[in-house]
Amino acid sequence: MKLILPYPDKNLNPNRRSGKHWAATKKVKDAAFEAAFYIARQAYNAIEVKHEPMPLVITFVRKDSRCVDLDNLLSASKSMLDGLAQGMRINDKYFEPITIQRGRDKTSSYTIVIIGE
User: Fold this and answer.
1) 21 pLDDT tier (thresholds 50, 70, 90)
2) CA-to-CA distance for 117 and 109, rounded, in angstroms?
3) For 26, 35, 94, 111, which has the most beta carbons within 10 A of its beta carbon?
4) CA nearest 56: which of 18, 97, 6?
């Protein structure tokens, strides 16, 4: 299944939040979680998801040509992955293996998540 999610907020980048109190990013994390949760719940509402490892391919698509570290993007997506798992009614430990990659779109930035292919 292919889901389109928002691009991770820059405030969730681990290099930007160093030394900040956890509450400084709580609203942004909650927004990322809720967006992923509702998209996954809508997509998986009528599907029985097996509780077994499923591959996850995450493509971070940017509208500009700056190269952002993939490990930072994955870290910034923790709340999104938690929201996906809860929306699918599974534990996120089943997202295995996880492949992360970059993409480019001249019009907008977003995240493509392909689950189970």
Assistant:
1) low
2) 23
3) 111
4) 97
